[in-house]
Backbone:
């Protein structure tokens, strides 16, 4: 066989191997790509299958509330509560016995805690029938007293026992004189009767209802001792 014939034969042999190598690669690659696609679809499906759940505090109705026998002839304005950014957002906050805190991703409040507590207090004051009028501080209404405050704690605390902690402070300012005439501090740890988020929400709700009843009683005592005319 001549050198030219030998070169041609070698070229044919190399070309004959390429299709077989390419086919082997394709047979190996296709199952890998199919597995990647199926995994991506599965992960996407898992993420979309978990909806968020929303909770709210119990809000009393105000329809048909009769005015008290001897209502205080004063108009109260209720300012928005101050708080850290955690309580001005809608995520439910939890913590342990230390300083670290976190939030649930898929368990949320219908409104930020500061807004919910303000709304419940507003309706409780109106439902009491003890005052001439009660308005949110952001309204254009004018009033005699402004109630404002700060929310410090509104969270789940895990430890040897799980509790729902609520801490806030309120004060009332006489808009005519500019002086603070009343203040009230509240802090209470309400036991949680379950181990899930709905049980924590129920305990926080009970805590808030107790707190606001205490606030209304304290305001009644103030106006009994310092009549407004």
Residues:
């Amino acid at each position: 066989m001549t050198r030219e014939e030998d070169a041609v034969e070698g070229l044919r042999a190399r070309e004959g191997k390429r299709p077989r190598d390419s086919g082997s690669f394709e047979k190996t690659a296709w199952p890998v790509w199919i597995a990647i696609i199926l995994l991506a679809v599965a992960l996407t499906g898992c993420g979309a299958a978990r909806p968020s759940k929303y909770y709210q505090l119990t809000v009393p109705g105000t329809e048909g509330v009769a005015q008290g026998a001897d209502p205080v002839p004063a108009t109260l304005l209720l300012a928005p509560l101050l708080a850290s950014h955690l309580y001005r957002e809608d995520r439910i906050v939890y913590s342990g016995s230390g300083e670290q805190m976190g939030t649930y991703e898929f368990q949320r409040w219908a409104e930020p805690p500061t807004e919910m507590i303000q709304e419940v207090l507003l309706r409780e004051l109106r439902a009491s029938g003890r005052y001439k009028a009660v308005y949110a501080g952001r309204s254009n209404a004018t009033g005699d007293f402004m109630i404002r405050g700060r929310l410090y704690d509104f969270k789940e605390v895990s430890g040897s026992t799980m509790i729902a902690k609520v801490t806030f402070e309120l004060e009332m300012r006489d808009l005519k004189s500019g002086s603070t005439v009343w203040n009230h501090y509240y802090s209470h740890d309400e036991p949680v009767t379950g181990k899930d988020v709905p049980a924590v929400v129920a305990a926080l709700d009970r805590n808030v209802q107790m707190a606001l009843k205490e606030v209304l009683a304290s305001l009644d005592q103030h106006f009994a001792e310092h009549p407004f005319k």
